[in-house]
Amino acid sequence: RSAALRIDWNNVTTKLGIKGSTAASLQAFKKRNDDARRKVALLRSQSQTVDFAHYRSSIANSAAVNEVEQQFKNFTPKTYDLERQLKMIEAFEVQAIKGAEETQSKVDQELRELDVTLKNVMEARPFEEMTVVSSFPSLGWLDVGGFNRGEADESL
After folding, report:
1. pTM score > 0.70 for this model?
2. CA distance 42 to 25
3. pLDDT digits (tens, 9 = 90+) for 57-111
4. Of the residues 57, 62, 78, 103, which has the fewest C-beta atoms closer than 10 A?
């Protein structure tokens, strides 16, 4: 209960870079948590006492009110075995960890690939050294005989 209070839900997905089904599962969990908190707060704010004297004076059948009062006094809340819910939470946690590990391995692989690409870019020759076309005119390789720029040379 206290762990859910300490989580900054607005920053969990952005700070951890969580996406896809993991983020959707976290958002669904947050929504269920918020709904449960609202219901508990609403129930706690409601009056938990019943004025049976008021009902005896306003209802003609006081025996029915006495019976309801007796059942109310004998009421004990049921205890629930939370083992099933805890197992579901643990399964969700295992799935979330698995998804986070998969995401981490994918991100690590992509970072390694980007490091290799960056290294290749940094070690590459400058563009000026790779350009060969600029040296062709000085060698005369681009001089096409029988062709003048303005008009065709018919002397061939």
Report:
1. no
2. 26
3. 888 888 999 999 999 999 888 888 888 888 998 999 999 889 888 989 999 999 9
4. 78
Contact by Cβ (8 Å): 86, 8: no
pLDDT band at 147 (very low <50, low <70, confident <90, very high): low
CA torsion through residues 131, 137, 139, 142, sign = positive
Kindly compute the dihedral angle of the four CA atoms of residues 93, 99, 101, 107, in this order, to the nearest 10 degrees. -150
Give percent helix, percent strand, percent coil of the chain, each to the nearest 5: 70, 0, 30
- C-alpha 149/C-alpha 110 separation (Å) is 52
In this predicted model, what pLDDT tens digit does every residue of 96-130 receive, in sequence order? 889 888 989 999 999 999 999 999 888 887 777 76
Within the chain, residue ranges assigned H as helices are 2-6, 9-16, 20-45, 52-58, 62-74, 83-123, 127-130, 136-139
DSSP letter assigned to residue 133: G
Measure the CA–CA gap between 20 and 103, rounded to whole angstroms.
10
